[in-house]
Every structure is written in C-alpha cells, then in structure tokens.
Design brief:
There is one protein chain. This protein has three helices and no strands. It has one domain. The protein is mostly helical and 61 residues long.
C-alpha cells in the first residue's frame, strides 16, 4: 500500500465517521464563540477529509 492510498483511506474513513463527533456538540449546545469555532473547525476538517478521500476504493487494485 502506497502512502497516497493510505492517506486517501484514512481521509475517507475520517470523513465518514467524523459526523459522529457532531452529536455531543449539538447536545451540549452552541452558546459561545468557542463552541461555534469548534463546530466550524469540525465541519472544515470533515470537508477536507471528504475531498481527499473521495477516490478511496475498498478493494486493492
């Protein structure tokens, strides 16, 4: 497995599973600039992970 395919795989799974982290943020509420910044940061990381991992194929080529 090459480094590029490893990064793609990790990015794919990070982008897929990161929305689970949104739940505690929603449950505690977004009532401060710090929590809002955390939420925006999570969304930004999620978008980058999805873009980088969009070519991931589960089977080796």
């Amino acid at each position: 497995m090459h480094l590029g395919s490893t990064v793609t795989m990790i990015s794919f799974w990070l982008g897929t599973l990161l929305p689970i982290v949104y739940l505690p943020v929603f449950l505690t509420g977004i009532d401060s600039i710090t929590q809002f910044s955390l939420f925006l940061g999570l969304i930004a990381v999620n978008v980058v992970a999805l873009v980088v991992g969009h070519n991931y194929q589960n089977s080796p080529v």
